[in-house]
Amino acid sequence: MATYTAVHFNCPNCDALYQRVKSEAGSETADDKPTCSVCGGPLPAGDGQFVFKYFLLREAIRSQKWQRRRVRALRQ
Question: What is the end-to-end Cα distance of the chain in Å, rounded?
Answer without folding.
Answer: 54
